[in-house]
Write a structure and sequence with these properties.
Distance between the termini: 39 Å
Largest sheet: 2 strands, parallel
Strand order of the largest sheet: 1-2
Structural class: mainly alpha
Shape: elongated
C-alpha cells in the first residue's frame, strides 16, 4: 500500500495546492485503497494487486473529469514540468555538498593558521639571532595561504553539476522528502557537537598563552612563540568545525526547499516543518549568515582588544538575540 501512496503523491506533485486538488487526491486514494483491499481479499499477491491498481487508476488525465479537476489539469499543461529527483541523486548531492564544505573549511583553516610560521620561526630567529630562520616562517605563511586559497577555489567547482537545482524547477517525492527530513533530524546531534566544539576551541584558544606565559616566562620560544601560535591553531580548527557543522544540514535544507509551497508536493508535512519563510531575500541571507557574522565579530573584537576573558559573552548574547530576530524577519510571525 505504501507503493500506491508514493505513486499517488508523484501523480499530484505538480498540481496547485488548493482544496479542490486535495479533495480529488483524497478521493482517488480512497478509490485505490478500496480496489487494493478488494484484490487482496480475492487472493491476489501484493505486488500483483499494486500493479493492477496503478494500471487502473494511474492515469490522471483519464480520471481528471470524474475527479472534478479537468480545468486544473488543462491549466497546468502549459506550465514547465518539474524535474523529479531520484533518491540516488539526492544522496549524491548531499555527499558532494559535504565534500565541498570540507574543502572550503580546510582552506579557511589553512589561511588562519598560516601566521603560525612567522610567529614560531620569527621567535626562533630572535632567540638564536639568525635572520634567515624568520624568512623560512614567512615562506611557510605564503605556502599555507596558497594551499588555503587553492582549496577554497577548488571547492567552488565541486557542485557545478548541481547548478540545475537553482535554474530548473525540481521536486522530490513523498518518500524522499520524509527520508531527507529524518536524516536532517538525525544529523542535529552531530551538528550540535561539532558547532559546540568549534566555538569552545575559539573561546579557549588563548589559554595556552596564559599557561606558557605563567610557567615559561623566561623562555621566549614558548611564551612568545608557541603560545601565540597555538591561538591561531585553535581558532583555525574551531572555525573549520563550525563551517563543517552545517555542511549536511545545508544540503538537506536545499533539497527540502525544492518543493514549491504552491504545489501539492510542497505540502509534505516534513517539508513544511523544515521550511522558513522570510519577509525578503535580504532577510533570508542575513539569517543564513547569522552565525558566520557572529564569529567574525567575535574574532575581530578578541584580536583587537585581546580581552578574551569578556569577548566570549558575544556567543550567549547572540544566542538570545537570534530567536526574536528570526521571528521579526519571518513571514509567519503573528
Amino acid at each position: 500500500m505504501e507503493t500506491i501512496k508514493n505513486y499517488l503523491e508523484t501523480m499530484f506533485a505538480n498540481l496547485p495546492n488548493t482544496l479542490e486538488v486535495k479533495n480529488a487526491k483524497d478521493e482517488l486514494f480512497s478509490m485505490m485503497e478500496d480496489k487494493y483491499t478488494e484484490l487482496i481479499n480475492e487472493g491476489k499477491p501484493e505486488n500483483e494487486a499494486v500493479g493492477i491498481v496503478i494500471s487502473e487508476f494511474g492515469n490522471l488525465d483519464e480520471l481528471a473529469e470524474s475527479l472534478g479537476i479537468q480545468t486544473v489539469i488543462n491549466a497546468t499543461e502549459d506550465e514547465p514540468a518539474r524535474r523529479m529527483l531520484s533518491t540516488e541523486e539526492v544522496i549524491n548531492f548531499v555527499a558532494d555538498s559535504t565534500r565541498r564544505r570540507f574543502l572550503l573549511a580546510f582552506g579557511v583553516m589553512m589561511c588562519i593558521v598560516s601566521v603560525v610560521g612567522p610567529i614560531l620561526f620569527g621567535t626562533m630567529g630572535d632567540t638564536f639571532g639568525v635572520v634567515s630562520i624568520t624568512m623560512i616562517g614567512v615562506a611557510l605563511m605564503f605556502v599555507c595561504v596558497a594551499i588555503g586559497v587553492g582549496f577554497i577555489i577548488f571547492s567552488s567547482f565541486m557542485c557545478s553539476e548541481w547548478k540545475f537545482l537553482d535554474n530548473e524547477l525540481c521536486t522530490i517525492d513523498l518518500a524522499t522528502a520524509e527520508a531527507v527530513a529524518r536524516a536532517k533530524s538525525d544529523n542535529q546531534m552531530n551538528k550540535g557537537i561539532m558547532l559546540t566544539i568549534g566555538i569552545m576551541l575559539c573561546i579557549v584558544s588563548f589559554i595556552p598563552v596564559i599557561i606558557l606565559e605563567s610557567i615559561f616566562s623566561q623562555l621566549n620560544l614558548l611564551s612568545e612563540g608557541l603560545g601565540p601560535a597555538l591561538i591561531f591553531v585553535g581558532v583555525g580548527a574551531g572555525v573549520m568545525l563550525i563551517l563543517m557543522s552545517t555542511a549536511k544540514d545545508a544540503a538537506y535544507s536545499k533539497i527540502l526547499s525544492l518543493n514549491d509551497v504552491n504545489t501539492i508536493a510542497g505540502d509534505y508535512e516534513p517539508v513544511k516543518k523544515e521550511r522558513k519563510h522570510y519577509v525578503s531575500n535580504f532577510a533570508k541571507d542575513c539569517m543564513s549568515m547569522y552565525w558566520k557574522t557572529v564569529l567574525c565579530i567575535y574574532l575581530i573584537a578578541s584580536f583587537t582588544t585581546f580581552n578574551w576573558g569578556s569577548t566570549w559573552l558575544i556567543w550567549p548574547i547572540a544566542g538570545v538575540i537570534r530567536k526574536p530576530l528570526e521571528r521579526i524577519l519571518s513571514e509567519d510571525r503573528r
